[in-house]
Amino acid sequence: MSTVLQSKDILDIDVFWGKELALANKDRLFGCSFNDLNSDRSGIAGVKVQGLIGDHSYSVLRAVECNGKRFVVVRNPWGKSEWTGRWSDGSKEWTQEWLQFLPELGHQFGNDGQFLMECELALSCSFATLIYVLPRCGLVGLFLSNRQNDSI
Q1: What percent of the chain lies above the pLDDT cut of 90?
Q2: Tell me, what's the pLDDT at 22?
Q3: 3-state SS string for the chain
Q4: What is the mean pLDDT of residues 65-69?
């Protein structure tokens, strides 16, 4: 079974992290995409937002909790063009303290299409869409319900 989920519809990021996203590529697969910017006003098509390409799919390779932060490791299947915001390769967040965690995160710098994003940032983008395959049926409704008595 697979589903498409708008990140803005996740009711509880902590529950989603623990029960779903932390299991990326263990027993479920995730992908994501970001909506394209409307080019009607600018006349420029294919604009990137901090390196992300609109209407383009990315693979979520894994979710990693490290030194008190939650990260998603994402890959552009083209093998190039990466996120250029917080925690991007060479960004100011990579202090000496954090550089020691690169092996634990399973990440290395380079224009290889793979990048890190903080989970909360990735999921807070109202323009993000998660696509994932579940190992069992029935769980998606838990995260999509808008009724108060069903919310997490």
Answers
A1: 28
A2: 84
A3: CEEEEEHHHCCCHHHHHHHCHHHECCCEEEEEEECCCCCCCCCCCCCEECCEECCEEEEEEEEEEECCEEEEEEECCCCCCCCCCCCCCCCCCCCHHHHCCHHHHCCCCCCCCEEEEEHHHHHHCCCEEEEEECCCCCCHHHHHCCCHHHCC
A4: 95
The enclosing domain of 72 has a CATH number of 3.90.70.10
32 lies in which domain range? 2-38+53-150
Quick check: is 104 in a domain?
yes
Q: How many domains does the chain have?
A: 1
In a domain, 97, yes or no: yes
pLDDT tens per residue across span 101-148: 999 999 999 989 999 999 888 777 644 566 656 554 444 433 333 333
